[in-house]
Design goal:
By secondary structure, the chain is an alpha+beta fold. It is built from seven helices and 13 strands. Helices cover about 25% and strands about 30% of the residues. The strands form two sheets. An eight-stranded antiparallel sheet has the order 5-4-3-2-9-8-7-6.
């Protein structure tokens, strides 16, 4: 019996994210792929909110994200992006991370999926699963190196307690985003935590809708029933008055067409 993963084609995925450049194992291509991804595939937890069970199997994720033009959250997005990178010839290692941003109950739980990509003698952290406020390009894994991306600045530092810590420069201070240790993980290692995110009473993922995507001049987000359209000159917020307006706004601002 053939493996269904072997029947998947990377070309529709590249079309999905609008990548038309050369297929070359390089840091430049990796950066282009991630930047295209975060501008075309939204972070979203709508299946969790609508009680649709998640699957982290690659064929299922491919169907959801590529064929149906949906998004997902970190365990979905980075699993499929990691598969794409490997199919394109990149060396990829999967890590678990603690997500610190906006976390009030610290130390943060291990509930984030992160990718390490080796290119020659350099290593990069690639992540398309944070949402509109995450790094738009991979970050070189160099202790203390400040890396500017547009109007955002990030750095990775080594800590004694939590391994590597990604920080962002925000309000004149370095703020933690996520941390990780360099223990390789297999696809099945993420299933239990993803299940917790779906169903645990304490999970932040099953309370309200969260949708986010980068745009050319900002980002679009949904917080429960409020849409926020961030642009360089400010933010426009609105709440759809009925389910049809909500569905139309999801499609307009995120390209998401939910099944009936």
């Amino acid at each position: 019996m053939s493996n269904p993963i072997n029947n998947l084609d990377v070309n529709p995925y590249l079309e999905r994210i609008g990548y038309t450049g050369p297929i070359v194992n390089s840091a430049y291509m990796l950066a282009r792929l991630q930047e295209q991804h975060v501008h075309t595939v939204p972070y979203e937890n709508l299946d969790i909110i609508n009680h649709v069970p998640l699957s982290l199997d690659i064929p299922h994720l491919y169907n959801k994200i590529v064929t149906q033009h949906r998004g997902g959250y970190c365990f979905e997005l980075n699993a499929l992006f990691g598969w794409l990178l490997q199919e394109l010839g990149f060396k990829v290692t999967h890590y678990f991370g603690r997500f610190w941003r906006d976390e009030t109950d610290t130390p943060a739980k291990r509930r984030h999926h992160i990718l390490l990509v080796d290119i020659g003698d350099q290593q990069y952290i690639a992540d398309v699963g944070v949402g509109g406020a995450g790094p738009r390009q991979p970050l070189e894994l160099v202790d203390g190196l400040e890396q500017v991306q547009g109007n955002e600045t990030f750095r990775l530092i080594q800590t004694e307690a939590y391994g590597w810590m990604l920080e962002e420069w925000k309000k004149e201070a370095w703020e933690p985003v996520f941390s990780f240790t360099q223990e390789p993980n297999l696809p099945q290692d993420f299933i239990t935590t993803s299940f917790w995110c779906e169903f645990a009473p304490e999970s932040p993922f099953n309370k309200t809708a969260r949708v986010s995507i980068r745009t050319a001049d900002g980002r679009n987000t949904v917080d429960d029933d409020e849409f926020r359209i961030y642009k360089s000159h400010g933010v426009h917020t609105f709440k759809p008055v009925n389910s049809q307006e909500y569905a139309n706004a999801l499609y307009t601002y995120f390209g998401i067409k939910m099944p009936n």
